[in-house]
Design a protein that fits this description.
It is a single chain. Helix content is 70%, strand content 2%. The chain has helices at residues 21-26, 31-47, 54-79, 87-104, 109-134, 138-161, 175-182, 195-213, 215-225, 227-232, 237-263, 274-284, 296-315, 323-347, and strands at 185-188, 191-194. The longest helix is centred in the C-terminal third of the chain and has 27 residues, at 237-263. It is mostly helical. The chain has 14 helices and 2 strands.
Length: 349
């Protein structure tokens, strides 16, 4: 009678193996962006004397936060395997709805803000619903939304206001409290910080918790890795994708209210092209175009690189036309570095 050989004593279950700190570090999606951020910081510290001033830090953080607020949900959407090309103009749409509803209805500013939230979330639901029902690529769906919102922003603003910009609402009830929430600022030492920095940090923390500590976070990675395989194991793919698009819409609402209450009026043609910057920040932060890989912290680092570059060129007194060149170069370098880091991480597993 044959007997089964006992398992070797030195054969350990791979699930019980603990990775070394170096392997864990190599496996982090944001590693490449952190290295890039350090390089950009050192570079502009050398070539621009005013870059290291305390007052410059507030300016850099503000520039980073205006991109970072949108880069966070865009990163989660990319991890889920989709894009949103309407994100830039959606910010402007949110501000326009809030301003024009408040002005035309002579309502409290907060009424316009809440109506804007509902309308903007509806845009996100529309994108997610169309994506899941038509099975068309998200590039096509959101490109269509981008064009429609661009036309609506210009057409409705001219129809209602008679010009391409909204009317002033700074004398309306509730404007002061709304500005305090969306566009206030304060000084700490020599650094002037704006409330968008707090919104940005809070959204990064929330998104990181969702990705790493919740079932919905697991769904996002699963859907990005393969929608069919995720559906086969019980992941609600449709609800997950609609939720991700609603997340983009919510952050577009936050950014839109900041735009409105910072400048009081909104130009209807703003926002075009910003969607590419949000995507670039997410990619620089370690998100893969193919989905299933990335982090919210990486998107924050990507946005910070954007802030340092955009303001560092000014502090260095260079021609600002060079900004797009540096942004494109950083995108390519970060993508190559992220790919190398991911291969090394997979090789050391």
């Amino acid at each position: 009678m044959s007997t089964t050989a006992p398992p070797a004593e030195d054969a350990a279950d791979e699930r019980l193996l603990t990775a070394s700190p170096a392997k864990k570090l190599l496996g982090r999606p944001e590693l490449g962006s952190v290295v890039g951020a350090l390089a950009v910081f050192v570079f502009f510290s050398v070539v621009a004397d005013s870059f290291l001033r305390a007052s410059s830090l507030g300016t850099v953080l503000y520039a980073a936060s205006t991109i970072g607020i949108m880069a966070v949900p865009v990163a989660l959407l990319m991890i889920g395997g989709e894009f949103d090309l309407s994100a830039g103009v959606m910010v402007t749409s949110s501000a326009l709805v809030s301003s024009m509803f408040s002005y035309q209805m002579t309502a409290n500013v907060w009424v316009g803000v809440l109506v804007s939230l509902l309308v903007t979330l509806a845009f996100g639901v529309f994108n997610g619903f169309m994506l899941t029902r038509t099975k068309l690529p998200s590039f096509i769906i959101t490109l269509g939304t981008f064009l429609m919102l661009t036309g609506l922003n210009l057409g409705l603003t001219k129809l209602i206001s008679g010009t391409v910009s909204t009317k002033s609402i700074d004398d309306m009830e509730g404007f002061g409290s709304a500005r305090a929430l969306f566009a206030s600022q304060w000084r700490i030492g020599g650094v002037e910080l704006k409330v968008t920095v707090l919104w940005w940090f809070a959204l990064v923390a929330l998104a990181t918790w969702i990705l790493l500590r919740t079932r919905f976070g697991n769904w996002i990675f699963a859907v990005g890795g393969g929608a069919d395989a995720a559906r086969a194991v019980g992941v609600p793919v449709f609800r997950t994708k609609i939720g991700l698009y609603m997340g983009v819409a919510f952050c577009a609402w936050v950014s839109g209210q900041h735009l409105l209450f910072s400048y009081n009026v909104v130009q209807s043609g703003e926002g075009v092209g910003n969607e590419l910057i949000y995507i670039i920040a997410a990619v620089i932060g370690g998100c893969l175009i193919t989905g299933g890989y990335g982090s919210a912290i990486g998107s924050a680092v990507g946005a910070f690189i954007f802030g340092m570059t955009s303001k560092g060129i000014v502090y260095a007194e260079w021609n600002p036309d060079w900004f797009k060149f540096f942004l494109g170069a950083m995108l390519l370098l970060a993508t190559l570095l992220n790919a190398w880091v991911r291969k090394r991480a997979e090789a050391t597993k």
